[in-house]
Structures are given as structure tokens and as C-alpha cells.
## 1
Amino acid sequence: MKLSALLMPTLREDPSEAEVVSHRLMLRAGMIRRLAAGIYELLPLGFRVIQKISNIIREEMNRAGAQELLLPALLPAELWRETGRWDVYGKELMRIEDRHEREFCLGPTHEEVITDLVRREVRSYRQLPLNLYQIQTKFRDEIRPRFGLMRGREFIMKDAYSFDRDAEGLEVSYRKMDEAYRRIFNRCGLKYKVVEADPGPIGGGFSQEFMVIAETGEDEIMHCDRCEYAASHEMARFKGKDQEKEKGTVPKIETVKTPGVKTIEQLQKFLKIDPKQMIKTLIHEVEGKPVAVLIRGDHGLNESRLKKLLKSENVKLAEPDFIKMATGAPVGFSGPVGLKNVKIIADRSVPGIHDGVTGANKEDAHITHVKYGRDYKADVVDDLRLAEEGDFCPSCDGGKLVMTRGIEVGHIFKLGTKYSEKMKATYLDESGRETVCVMGCYGIGVGRTAAATIEQSSDKDGIIWPAGIAPYHVVVAPVNFSEPEQREVAVEIYESLFESGIEVLLDDREGRIGARLKDIDLIGIPVKIIIGPKGLKENKVEIKLRAGGDVKLVEKTRALEEIRKILEHGE
Amino acid sequence: MKLSALLMPTLREDPSEAEVVSHRLMLRAGMIRRLAAGIYELLPLGFRVIQKISNIIREEMNRAGAQELLLPALLPAELWRETGRWDVYGKELMRIEDRHEREFCLGPTHEEVITDLVRREVRSYRQLPLNLYQIQTKFRDEIRPRFGLMRGREFIMKDAYSFDRDAEGLEVSYRKMDEAYRRIFNRCGLKYKVVEADPGPIGGGFSQEFMVIAETGEDEIMHCDRCEYAASHEMARFKGKDQEKEKGTVPKIETVKTPGVKTIEQLQKFLKIDPKQMIKTLIHEVEGKPVAVLIRGDHGLNESRLKKLLKSENVKLAEPDFIKMATGAPVGFSGPVGLKNVKIIADRSVPGIHDGVTGANKEDAHITHVKYGRDYKADVVDDLRLAEEGDFCPSCDGGKLVMTRGIEVGHIFKLGTKYSEKMKATYLDESGRETVCVMGCYGIGVGRTAAATIEQSSDKDGIIWPAGIAPYHVVVAPVNFSEPEQREVAVEIYESLFESGIEVLLDDREGRIGARLKDIDLIGIPVKIIIGPKGLKENKVEIKLRAGGDVKLVEKTRALEEIRKILEHGE
């Protein structure tokens, strides 16, 4: 392709709409353009990267025995009603009526549709296992679409669904996907961690996320500094640091006036105490009833563990009115002492608070010198706090947890029978008994993978594409294309590369070489061949890698050979 | 791929929902399944065919210098309002509101979006010409979706848009697309005609359709029996057959009672006259005013020519009340004699009707012995009838028009400045003058191309795929896979084919060979290698082509070589 003909509208200035590096650089490199909030046009260079990633996914999914198909985007409401998700999904689900006023949604995910297909077409154990996938456009009306391709309202996703005879079969299918995902992200040139994750609204018992490590990531990851253990902050387990038992008597409780002091920070300043002394009391509404959750002042509550402990999804921080009703006081002054008719659940660290401070259940008042067992008791004591840096790793001896940030590019789920049971996706086993299929599902955000790559791989000049997903491998750039000798050598090298299957651009544009190379560095092409008068005097051309390193002068006749070596080595 | 693992739910019986061969066979071969009216799931075999066609399109578009990109499916209403199509498109356009009540539609075509992109990104003549294309899912809420992938509500289309500096540039771009389309449909193995067509709601001055010849086609095509001339029935031009001038005096006009005789057929029976004697009078409402259109009884009116002649799109057959108002009589009794305040337009053949019959503009009455010039005159005489078989070809000497039926798989348009002018897609020319881009657009129905292929290529046993777009090239089918020698030879041949890049299936299923081969013929795989005990005694296997011909016995070690020869020859 000649650069003069390519639609590549690069920008000199940083566009104001972009907050993160990848968004900024994809706009500046002319790879994407915004059509509406969270809705992007993929321009030729952007489309090529998406195709590269899609093809890697396709090859690895096929290698793992999965079969590609294509499901519609317009999905009938009936199917979503069968699983109850028509109502659960809320405004994120884009709904539409056809000319006959039949209800449809634009698919944000395809569990219902694929389960419906399998229940219609699969009858016998002989047809299982089955792993079906598609690379398709999804729609989610995100409340806050942002960061370009990172969180869009229309985006390309690979989604796969496995159907097995039983749980052991699912284990095999899941492991195959785990392996395929590692190969995919390795081939994309990404540094990532596989973390235990919350299955969220997709559901199922167990899931793992593939997280690309990046400072700009939206997600917090806890991982061990010694072993492979990693989990989302919410899901991270830990072995607590040993707490020294404090001794000595605690004075009687005392109520102190704390006018307008509602938060831990305010209290810390006002009473000049350590947050470790505070008993944070978070009133929750659980299935309509009040529950007081006690956490040490320096800890964070793990909502997901709380839900698991209470065996309910219907758990939320209570509204002010509800708190007033349950404790008699406004928000900010709750505490466990004297609290009646409210279930109390405490994190394991709370009973160890020797001489504590907590709310008095009265406006503008707290209580000091509070002691567990003497002044209050919890109905349940369990692990409820979020893991913290320095906590011991739950899976090895002596490793400590470290926090880092990541971008979720893949998510794999053991769904079990959540959908197959509701939708009656069954098969007849060897003995002719009707049995429910056991499912897994496996997603990759294709556009997000491209964006995450840039978050990990760029410099002040622009994108640095790993060779595996670069839109083109090489640019041949003569210093002056209108100079006959340079042009002749450039075209010759360009054609030899093209004919040997290397994806190559020819910079035949007018203008100064400096400005043109700036463009080429911005779009991140891995290898440049620069052809100038000085080198040509010795029959040489310059080869320069985008990722850095010295300029290499090679005989012009050896350019192809040299490039081949670099690309083979690089991928 | 092993057939036992492939999701290929073939059906023994013809499904009742299918009216045409391609729909029936795609369902029976387990290639597609219906999710809702006009909305289909592409199962693995169906998806592969769609991919094959897409890749052929991609290669030929790239070869023609077009650049692939991907535009969104969710399109903001504002853009469609700019061209006025938001209102014009009617119910076929699927409209949706996002969570902020902003209006979008699901793209049925992308002229607005691409023109918007180009007006934002193209500034200089140096950036032109540009040809941008995508292969993408389109949405049209068809009032009568039918025939499977032939006319769906959600379907895959390749759409391309060219932008040129001027009309000469458009000619070049258009010709390149014409050539690319011919290569694409040739590679798909299709028999087709390129016909002059009506641009319809897409607009522009000139368009051609690529029509796959098939009896089940929805469109009528007129083509010359000698030269390359072909056009849609509506667009077909012709040189009329010479009409013999009849002589002799015509008696005075006479009114005859014709109670309840309203149609040409009824009149023909009632008066026992030749339809060639009848002056069919069709009252039209044109921009709110009545126009009487006269056509000989045996001819059909060409609505599209009438619109062109009247220079109006607002032309329709009048409603009964309007006819009564204009002529004083109910429907079925209109005629030109004595008609006042109504413009009269006659086809060129009408003045030649020697002794005619027409309506009396009175209920239950006609007039006989009507003569042009004496009893009535037209305000305009022009070509208004549809071409007929036997008419002389307009483009060669002595060729005659023949009618055939076709399926539109591609449509190319010279749009001119219809969109670029409205949306101000301009560039600065060499002299710095702002100039409007000249556009073309070019579509291919990908799923429809697959269906059209089957309409042209099937037999009683199933589909016969041309090798270029077959889901797999070869099936290796042992008579009994559990028999060790057969299995060993089968696996060996399968692997050797697989490794040399041939797309091959291994029939490892249980069951009788007869039933299994029925499945394989149904899905239309071009080549079968059958491995049975009789052949193996002489170290031979059978090679059989789906398209017919003799069974060939070859040495098992020569199978790969033989298959290679067949596939190279076949494509």
C-alpha cells in the first residue's frame, strides 16, 4: 500500500476528548474516529489491527477444537424473559421494537441464544462436548462509555460457549480455553495476569479474568510477590497479618459529643485516634432487613464476600431513612453498642480492637473505650474485609500480596447449569436419561485488547505495535521520493517485501522526511527502511526498529533478508 | 475436522417454512437456523461459506485499491436527517433510543456515515480518489422477509463508497468496481448478467445490477439474444417491432353497454376483440393532478419511464375516488375520448391503433371504432411501455430481447453528488477552490450470494458447492471407521490432505455408509474419498465428485496428488 493513498488522518495535537494514552494515540494515529458517545469508526489502520487480533483468536480457538458460527445481533425478548435477564439487565440492554411491535434487544452477550440453539439441535451425548464461538459486534448502553475502544457502547467481542456432559467435561473445556487464551495474549505481545474474579451478572460458580497490567487500568489486582496467585481486589483471599493481643484494662465506655463528625477521617482528626481503633459500622439493607456490618477503621469492606456470607444478591448500603429507622440516629453515628433488633456481622479483626471507638446511635455522638464481649457482641464473625498490600498470600508460604492495576481483556466462566437448567438444554446420556448440559463461557474484548496493547506499549512519539498485531510490518521511506535513484531503490525493496508476503507500506508522500517519519512512528510500524542519498553512495539503506536500538546500515540487496530475520525473531 | 464433532444438524425432511431451493437446502444441510422472521443463525458450515465469499470479496476489493474499514451499526439520527432519509426511509429503518433518549437507527446502508467521515477527514485533492469498503451486518425491517438468507432483516453486506475529484474520476472508480465484481462472482462460480438497473432510493444517475440467473429469482431481466445488452425489465430499452399501417375507413364511434366489464381480459371476452385494439387508459395522480396514461391493451406500463417523463417521483395510480372526480366514471371505464382537464400521455404504439376500443367515462360503457387524431389526441407521445420478448435490442442490429429471471447479488451506482452536496463533502482542488466530491457506491449481498449459488447449483440430493466457496473441499469417508485398516488409511489420507492445506473432513461417525454419504451429498462437499474393503484389497480408494461423473479408483498413496489435481482444475 502506498501511504499517499491510505486513509490515515493523523493529528499533530492531542485530542481533548481522550483521557488515556491508548485513546489519545488511536485518535492521533488516525485509527479510530468517534461517531457518537462510545460508538467508534474503525479506519483502515485500526481495522487492520482488529483483524490481526481476530485472526489470532480464530486460529487459537480452532486449534482448541472450538467451532466458529455467527449469531444475530437482534435477539427476541422471549429468550431473555426465559432466563429473567430481560428485567434484570436494566438500561444497559438496548431494546427495540420491530414494525409489528415485537420486542427485541441488541445482544450484549449470547448465553440465551446459544443455549436455545443447543437445546434445539443437540439430542445425544454423542454430540457433546461442543464449543461454539463467534467474533461479533455487541451492544451495551453503558452509562459512562469512555477511553475509546476500552469501554464502548458498540464493540467487537469474541464470545465462546462450551457444552459438556458433566462437570468433569467442563473442567476439560475450561482448561482448553485457559490455555488458548494464554496463547492468544502471548501472541498479541501482552504482559498479563490471570486472576480469580467475580462472575458478576453472567453468573456461574467460578471465573477468571485475563488482566493486562497497566497503570491506567480500571481494575485493582492483588497478586503474590512469590507465587502465581492473583485475584481481583474483591475476590482476593489472604492470610491475615497476626495481630498482637493488647493487654491491660479498658475504662468504662464514655459518650463524647462529636458534632458533624461523620466519617472515619473526620473522627480520626477530631478525637486524634488511630483508625485501627475504630469500629466502622455500616448499616446494610439485606432483603429489606437491617444488618450492621463491623469493619476496622483502616479496612475496606468486601461487598462480594458479604453477599456470599449472607447468601443473597439483594444486599445494599442502607439509605439514610432506613438507617434512622434501624439505629435511631442519622448516617455517620451508627455503632454496635446497645443496637437492638439488628443482626451484627463483624470482620475477624474487629474483636481484636482493644479500646475502640464507635458511633453512639445518637446524632453528633460517639462512644469511646468500647470492648468486644463486654460492650457488644457480633452474631457472626468472619472474613469480610478487602485484602491489603502486605497481607500474606493464601496459596503459598510467606508470599505477600502486592496491588497493581489492570485492564480486563478476557474473562472465562464456569457457568455450570445456570442457563441450561432454566432453558432446558438437555441431552440423552448413554443410558437414555435426560441430563442437563454443563456450560462454560469465554469472552475476549477485541477492541479492548488493541487498546490495552497501546497502554502497555507506547512512548512519547506514539504507538509501538508488537509485530504480531501491527497494522503493517514495515515502512519503506525514501528521504525524497521524487529523486529517481531513491524512488527506484524504494520501489524495488517495497515490491520484494510485498511479494514475499510481508505487509509493507511505501512512503511515497511529498514533504520533509522528518515530518513523515513522525507520522510513521506515531502509527507504530515495527520496522522502518530509510533510503537516503548518503547510504545509497555505498549502496546501503538504513533499518530502524520502532522499539528502539541502533540504526543498522545494510546493503540494499540484503534488505529483504534482513527484514525477514527481524520479523521471525520479533514475533 | 472430524464429522462426529461438527455441529451439522442435517434434516431428512423438507422444512415447511422454506419455499425456495436454497432456503430449503441451507436448513436441511444444517447451515442456518431461523431465530426470528428474517433473522438467521449461521451455523459452522454456513458461516464457513459466508467467510469464503467474504474473503474472495476482500481480496478483489483490495486488489482494486479499495481500503477496508468498519463503520458502526448504531447510527445517529442527525446524519440521516441531513440527507432527509430519516423521514423518507419509513418503517424499514429500525429506530432506537438510547438511555438518554437520543435517536439512532440500525444502519441499512452507510452513505451518510461515510460521507460524514470523508467530509471530516479529506481536505485536499491529494487525498482523492478514495474507495472505502466494509463487510458488515445491515438491518432492514422488511415488510415480508423471506427465502432464508435471500431477503432477511439482519444480513451481511459488503458496501463500498468511492470518492473522486470529478466525474471522470468516478468513471475510473466505477469501472474498477465493475471489474472487481465480475472477478468476485466468477470466483464464486456463478452464472450472472450485468444489467442496467433503476437506482431506486439509493439514488444517483446510473446503476447496474449483477444478476444471478435463476428461475426462482424475484427480478425479471430482458437481455439480447445476440449481444451483451441486458437490463431490468423496468429499465430495458428496445427498438419497437415495426407496426403495419392498417388502412380503410373506421366507422363512427359507437357507445356499447358493458355492464361490470372492467378489465382488459373481461373486455376481450365480452367484445371478442384482440387486446391490440384496446386503448388501456390508466388514470394517475401526479403531484395531486390527474394524468391519463394510454397503453395498448397487450402492453405493460413502465412506471419508471413515466416518472422520468413527468420528472416527478410523486406519481401513483389514482384511487377510485380520484378517478371518479377526474373522469366522472368509476374505475374500469376511463378513456381518452371527450376527457377534459386531464393531461393525456400516450405510448408510441397507441396512435397506430386503427379501430380501437376504450372506456366511455361512463359506468358500464365502452366506446368502439375509436381512431387517433379523429376522436382524441394525446398531449405527449413517447416510449412508455415495458419491453417485451421479441422486441429488437436497442444496442445491436437484429438482436431480439429475451426475458429471464435473476437474483440481484450486487448493485453498483454512480451516485454523483447526491450525498456529498447535501452533506458538504468537499475538498480543495489544485487551485485551492472548494469542490464537491463525486461519489459512487457498490454493494454485494454476501448471504444472498451464498443462497443464489445454491439456486444455480443443486440436485435432488442436495447442494453442489463450487470449490471456491465450499465449506470444505474434501470428505474422507471410510465405509466402516471402526474397522482398523480402513480407519488407518482414512486417518492417514485425512492428515496428508490437512497438512497440505486442503480443507478436509473425516467422516468418523458410526452408522451405515449409505446414510452418511447422503449427509455429505446434502451439504455439497465437492470431493469424496471413499475407503472400503474391496478397494483396499488392491490398495485403492474411490474418488467421487459431487458434481457427477465416474468414480475413480486410485492408489491410496496417490490420493493427495489426485485431489490436488482435481481442486486446481476445478477452481
## 2
Amino acid sequence: MSDRADQFGCDFRPHFKTHQSHEIGRWIRSAGVNGITVSSVSMGHYFSEDGWDDITIAFPFYRGMLPELIELEKQASLRLFLHQPGQVALLDKELSNPFKFYIEIDAGYGRSGIKHDDYNSIDEIIRASEAAKHCQFHGFYIHDGGTYSARNREEIRHSIEASLDALLKLKEAYPQAKISLGDTPSASISDDLSQLDELTPGNFVFYDWMQVQIGSCTYDDPALFAILPIAQQISPDKAIVHGGAVHLSKDTIIQNNVRTFGQAVMFGDKQTNPIEGSFLSALSQEHGTLSGFMPRQMKDYVVICPIHSCLTANLFTYFVTPSGKRIEKRIGS
Amino acid sequence: MSDRADQFGCDFRPHFKTHQSHEIGRWIRSAGVNGITVSSVSMGHYFSEDGWDDITIAFPFYRGMLPELIELEKQASLRLFLHQPGQVALLDKELSNPFKFYIEIDAGYGRSGIKHDDYNSIDEIIRASEAAKHCQFHGFYIHDGGTYSARNREEIRHSIEASLDALLKLKEAYPQAKISLGDTPSASISDDLSQLDELTPGNFVFYDWMQVQIGSCTYDDPALFAILPIAQQISPDKAIVHGGAVHLSKDTIIQNNVRTFGQAVMFGDKQTNPIEGSFLSALSQEHGTLSGFMPRQMKDYVVICPIHSCLTANLFTYFVTPSGKRIEKRIGS
């Protein structure tokens, strides 16, 4: 992903919410990354403790963040998401060091951000920053969650068009602004993102079964798995495994008209292969129901590729590599 | 709940997977409870560290549990869930202290357990235990998750009938067996459970919005809430809050044909009141979308009654009481 960002001439500021691990962060630092993106101030603190000093808090600013931000600005240069002129004035007063901010744009996904054509609001915020001492408008950011409903490369490309258009129009109106895009599908497969200034994908570090279905990666790319003990064989095509919502979270994907909570895979010598028709069909707190084809080798445990690796990783207190090495991570939300 | 168990003459062995907290466990101990139920061996270890020495591991036994069980039996009398005669022989050999076991029964819910009318399998397991040294057959256990689809007291009563019938028939066939039931809805509202020997509900310790909808409790009963900062007002009836899947998990309930990830409530002097039509309509990793009516008092934060308190509690590293006291809990799965 770092190479792709280089190829497009984009600044690569990956989102670290997926792994939440100092050690994995260091792997990424060794690829030349200096600036990172996180989804909460406390996650920012966690990474500043490991020496990261250029951190974007990719969540709409609210007043309750202030006490933690005042601590964090002592350790790191901050980039914040502001959506009201009053926030510019407040932070200019409360923070002591220079900081940058993005205006998050909603180009149709409909989560957070200012509507892409609401120039009045955008103008007001930027004007407020021109009077400020510490605070510098940096650019526009879009997380296009719409690409998550794509199911092939063509649909990803199509789905991202509205976001790209919005960012390019904004850049025309505000030529000093950097434009930044955050989703893993388009960062993974777009042929050309060279019009963007920054890329901030996060999920790519592990990928997952949803990204395979979207078309962001192949089934050999995911790098996070849950190895679940098989506890009780109910019938030839149904077993209870020790792996529930407290291990995998409950994100699902509909595949062949069936709701799936995780895909069974087999580790091969050279690649990981999905076991066709073998998946988690239900989860309660600790129980998972494994359904479908169960090859003979699948006796004591099943390897599950999670639907949404960000949420699965968040539920564990550490990772283990294939060679048995334990990788620590952040605990708690 | 302890009073209800007394009233029915049942042994009360509550499930501790909902709170996962030493301190809350002590409140329950002070009500006279001695035996508890947990959903994993590591959760059993956590509670044995606080002096609990009579612990049911309410999850189908599998061989991978053994190393941890061998440690745990040094601290606590165990009750296990066995479903194969070979497991009786294995544990009789591997464990050093006497232990009891349940045969978990599936009376139609279709998760784990042996089918209620599969007398061959049941006979085989019990016969195996008669030859064993350490191992004593204790009784039959049903978790009737079917009550979770009920939407009033009548439906809960109706939904539990198959489970009660199955347990009573098994008791007729095996008069020495204790019969044990695990779900919160029927433990909360059934008029008479005196035919049962044991009650093991767990969720009742907090209840949640799903239990309100089921009819297990009223909207004033839930005791676990997430207080979420309001980050960005998108429109008069839509706001982004800092509270996502890493805080609430993603269990949902359909209410008035709309999928709900959490219900907004208002703390009153005497009771907690739901704010009609105000709820979380979407969750991503850190973002929640609050939809509907937002009273003027709801400015900086919203109080959310979670859909499924077990999963929400599991995601936090501690609780805070209304008076500001911090209550520690178990971390990790």
C-alpha cells in the first residue's frame, strides 16, 4: 500500500484503528511512514507512547475531547476534524501548539461530515481559521464507506466517483487545500489516485472476508484469522465451535443468500484457501455454529477468516504469528 | 432473582458472563449465592481468583480445555458439560478431583446439546460415568434461547414449554438427575418454576433493551448504559455520536420496522424513561448515528440503553456507578 501511495504521489497516512498495535505500527514505520490516522484521542495517546508524533484524529471534534487533546498535543502534532467555526476559536484558545484541521466531507455516504456542496459552512470554518493563531486549515477528508457495498473492481471504481468528484471540485474552489481519501477498497484497486494528496486506508493491514467479497483483495490476502476449537459435532454438516460474538464481533455478509459470520479456510503451503460452503451461520456470546462442508482434516479446530477484521482484532488482547510469536496490542475502547 | 429462586425452591447458580466482575460477583455472593456459572474456563479462573470454588463451565467440553481445567480443579469444584462417553473416561483419567457433569439438552433451540429424545446417547454417557472414579452425573441443563424471540409474558411462557416438558420427561426417566434452566426471560417472569432444581440466568444482572422488548422487565429495570458524546449534529433528527461497534457491539432489534442498535433514555429522579423514537440507527467502528427525536436537554451526550448488555459490557474494561465509583471487570475473551 505504501508503494501504491508512492506511485500516485500521495502522502500515505494509514489508519491504525485496525491493528491497534505498537509492534505492527513499527513494521509500517519501517516502510517510511511518519504520519498516522486514528479514530479516538485515546488511540492517539497509545501510539504517541511509541514515538508517533504526527497524528490525525479522524473523528468529528467534540468538546469532551479537550482534556485528552491538551495532553496529547504535548507529545504530537495534531490534525483534527472540525465542522463548526466555533470549534476553531475554541481550540485556538485551548491548545498551545500549532495544529492543522481537515473539514470532513460527506459526498453521499451519509455518516459524518459536511455536505460536499455546503460551501457556506465550509467558507465559515476556513474564514474562522484565517483569524486564528495556532490553527491551520489543511484540507478535505472523505471516508467513502459506500465502496463497502461494491462486489467487484468495477463497482468499487464506480462507487468512488462521487467522492473523487466532490474532492476535486473542492480543490478547485480552495486550491490551497489537500484532499484525502480513507477507504481500503478504492486505495487497493483504483488504477489512478494521483489527483489525491493523501491516502489513509486502514483495513488493508489485515484485510478480511468482506474485502475479499468486495473485490479489494483475493482470498489469499487476509492476514488475520481466528482459530476456533470445535466443541460439539451436531450433525455431519453442523458443529458448535468455541468462538462467539466476544471473539469475532457480529458483522455479517450475505453470501449465496445466507448470512455468514465468518468463512472457514485451510492454510496451505503457499496460500490460504477458503473451504467452499463452510462458514459460521450463527454466533451467540461464546458459541459459534459452523455449517456446511467439513473436510476430514477439520477435526479439533477450524480456521476462520473474519468478516470484519477491525472489529475482530479489537476484541483480542494480543495476536500470535504463525511462528508462535505474541504481538501485543491496545486493550479497551 | 435470588428471592425468586428461593420461592421456587431452586438452587440459584447465576451465570457471571454478563458482568464478568469480581466486585459485582461479591454483591451476588452477599445474597447467599455459592455456586456460579461461566462460559469459558478462563472466565472460571477469573472468578476462582476471587474465592468462588463451585463453578459450572457452561460450554460443551472439548479436549483443548484440558490444560486450563487441570489448573482450575486445584482451586474449585467443577461442573462440566459432557456430550460423549469418551469424554467421561478422558476426564476421569486426566482430572484428579471429583467433578460433576451435566448433559446439555437441545429441546429445539438448535444450538449446542444432545437432542432431548436421544435416549441412546444420554444412556451411554450416564453408563460411562457409573464406571468412573472422579466423575458424577449431576443432571440436565437447557439454555432456551428461544425465549429471546418472545415479545410478551405470554409468549415467554409459551416458548419455555417445550424445554420444561423435555426436562420433566428426562427427570422421569432419570429420577436422580437435577434439572437446570438458563435463560433470563423465563427466570424473570414465569409464575412457577418449582419443578426445576436449579436456575442459572445471567443477563438479569443488568437487563437491556432486548429484555424490555421481550417483556422480561420494564424499561426502568436495565442497569447498564453507555453515555455517548454527541459529536456532530447532521440535521434536526440526526447526529453522530462517539459510540460504535467497539463500544456497543452490533446486536440489534427490529422495532416499528426499523433496525435499532441502542435506545436513547433519560435518567429521571425516580426512574429511567426511554425517549420515544430516539435510537441508534447505525454503527461503524467508532461512529454511531443517533436518529429521531432529540429533546433540548440532549446537547452534549446521549444515554444509550444497549440492545444486548452482555456484549456491551464485554467491550469495556470497567464500569462506573452513578456516584462515580469505578468497578473493575475482567478484560479479554
